[in-house]
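hiii so um. not sure if this is the right channel but i have a protein structure encoded as tokens and i wanna go backwards to a sequence. like what aa goes where. can anyone help
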């Protein structure tokens, strides 16, 4: 499955990138989904994060790996959770703002915990979560 979301943020691409690529901001960006970050190794491309997240009230462990970073332009993260997700953020600088395109690619397994993910995705929760994530990024940037 593929899901896209867009938002325009009243901040330079440098500043937006510095927030979305900084793991310490992720609990605020993924507010209500990530409940704890327990381990972070290196910085930049190759950083790995172990976190606790909540889906439908159930706490689970997951891992994220920053696979690609192009400052001011692109961030790609592989997320290993109930399923594997590939989350790409593309930034485009304008005079006084930045367009942020979020692309989430994933498959929904239908066995084991995948049944939980299937119910979550079929209920429109992935779309709603992406909207919240984009709104949180915008809020964080425009409050600075």
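sure thing!! here u go:
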């Amino acid at each position: 499955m593929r899901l896209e979301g867009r938002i325009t943020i009243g901040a330079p691409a440098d500043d937006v990138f510095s927030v979305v690529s900084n793991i310490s901001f992720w609990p605020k960006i993924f507010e209500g989904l990530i409940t704890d970050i327990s381990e972070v190794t290196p910085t930049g491309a190759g950083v790995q994060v172990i976190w606790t997240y909540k889906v439908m009230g159930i706490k689970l462990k997951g891992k994220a790996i920053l696979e690609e970073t192009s400052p001011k332009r692109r961030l790609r993260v592989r997320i290993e959770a109930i399923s594997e997700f590939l989350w790409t953020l593309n930034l485009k600088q304008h005079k006084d703002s930045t367009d942020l395109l979020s692309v989430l690619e994933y498959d929904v397994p239908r066995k084991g915990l995948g049944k939980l993910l299937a119910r979550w995705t079929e209920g429109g929760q992935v779309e709603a979560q992406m909207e919240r994530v984009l709104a949180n990024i915008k809020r964080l940037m425009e409050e600075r």
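oh and The chain has a mean pLDDT of 85.
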